Structure formats: C-alpha cells, structure tokens
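Everyone, describe these structure tokens:
***
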Amino acid sequence: MPMIEAKVTGSLPAEKRDVLKAEFGKAISLMNKPESYLMINLADNQDLYFGGKKLDKGAYVEVKVLGSVDSSASSKMTAKVCEILEKELGIPGEAVYVSYFGTSNWGWNGSNF
C-alpha cells in the first residue's frame, strides 16, 4: 500500500534502478509500512527546476501511504531518501524535495483496504 515515486534529472541504468528499488524497499520500514506491498516508480531524465534554475542533479520524491503520515517517521524517511540519492546518484540533499501523502482510501486487487 505504500508508493514511492522518484523523478530524477539523470539517467538510471538498470543496475541503479535495482539499487534504488532495494534501498527504498528497506527505507519504507521507517514509515511503519511493509516492503511486501511497496510499489515504486522511477522516472529518469526529468527536467527539474529550483529557484528558477534548471538542476543538473536533482530529485523530487513522493511517498504515499495508507493512513496518516507521522511527522517523526517522515522526517527520518526524508533523511534516508536524501542519503540514498546522494550515495547512489550524487544528488545533494539541497536539490531534493520529498513530499508525503496519506489517504484513508487505498484500492488493491479489486477492493479497498
């Protein structure tokens, strides 16, 4: 039921996609959500602008969950997402936005949770 969507400015070869998938899979536990229901969408070669300037290296990440978003958990998740993107893609934290969305309605397999 969690969903992570990451838009990044650079190219993501298959091996980097696999690493991000694995690292985001571990990180979602910080939101008290199981990796077994995690869906991930990785979009590369995106044009991202910050402060009116095109970013050479940047990312926008959305984390969506069933239920409410705990501010303490999301703070830890933001730190982890920035750490992952810096380590794996060289994207500095100041060029990363992470937004969180919680919902009480989440559908899967023909019904809602």
